[in-house]
Amino acid sequence: MSDSPRWLSATEMRAWRGLLRMHDVLVHRTGRSLQSEFGLSGTDYTVLAELTRVPDGRLRMVELARTLGWEKSRLSHHVARMAKRGLVEREECTDDRRGAYVAVTWEGREAITAAAPRHVEDVRALFLDHLTPGQITLLAEMTDLVLEKLRTDD
Amino acid sequence: MSDSPRWLSATEMRAWRGLLRMHDVLVHRTGRSLQSEFGLSGTDYTVLAELTRVPDGRLRMVELARTLGWEKSRLSHHVARMAKRGLVEREECTDDRRGAYVAVTWEGREAITAAAPRHVEDVRALFLDHLTPGQITLLAEMTDLVLEKLRTDD
């Protein structure tokens, strides 16, 4: 790092700061109704959404952490809190080195089913409705591309 | 909410999930070197970056919370932790109803100055280098637009 840093241009800075801020504002705003009306945090919702997308409603902890882009310790703590509330169950597998599973419970399915219609409306009203279909497609492509690059790098 | 929910299309889902995941992976990955090499979390860096952007190095707590898109309680807790480590100072103003300020300290300036070159390289290598200048501009425009809409709505 002896060369002088390649500082961000004004547009690069707007894109990077914009990404961080837009994410934080959207997570905060969509989280409000999840919390007040359904007693779920945005993070609870995200975990339940990933688990209910897969056939058995269960994923390996390591796999879920990778999908979400979370550190394993963050996921472990969060899953432990959700398990206490009966939303998920942790399934240990002592004979398998690839580690524990986490599975959605019946209560977890009920919770996300109740919250989903309102949450989807919020995601539309706060975010997608402000963008054109072309912008949404570009964002989908951009995030797929970056995530793919990061996966191959890691 | 008696009408059936307008569920997200596959592309809308890719854009929304992609935004959440890309954010989380990038924050996690850029946070690693901040933490291990400079003892700063990504959140510390973000707060210091906002404070060192303004002439006096100080902002009202409410203003900073709005800029970052954070809840006031989240910012208060985080600022309290940073103040303990000497990175920022909280300045109360009892005669002013608009509330307390937070200011970067000399140590805070040193910390971000030390970390910035590496952090900017990480943001490039993990994120910006994967995108074309056109995509970066589009992302900047998109995030500006959404943040502006959310500001007017609130």
Quick overview:
Chain A is mainly alpha-helical and 154 residues long. Chain A has helices at 10-38, 42-53, 61-68, 72-84, 106-126, 133-153, and strands at residues 58-60, 88-91, 101-104.
List the helices and strands and how they pair.
2 copies of one chain form a homodimer.
Chain A: H1 10-38, H2 42-53, E1 58-60, H3 61-68, H4 72-84, E2 88-91, E3 101-104, H5 106-126, H6 133-153
Task: Describe what this molecule looks like in 3D.
2 copies of one chain form a homodimer. The first copy, chain A, is mainly α. The first copy, chain A, has a single domain, classed as Orthogonal Bundle (Arc Repressor Mutant, subunit A), CATH 1.10.10. Helices cover 68% and strands 7% of the residues of chain A. Chain A has 6 helices and 3 strands. Chain A has a 3-stranded antiparallel sheet with strand order 1-3-2. In chain A, α1 packs across α5 and α2 packs across α5 (106-126). The longest helix of chain A is centred in the first third of the chain and has 29 residues, at 10-38. The first copy, chain A, is globular, with a radius of gyration of 18 Å. The mean pLDDT of chain A is 92. Chains A and B meet through α1, α5 and α6 of A and α1, α5 and α6 of B.
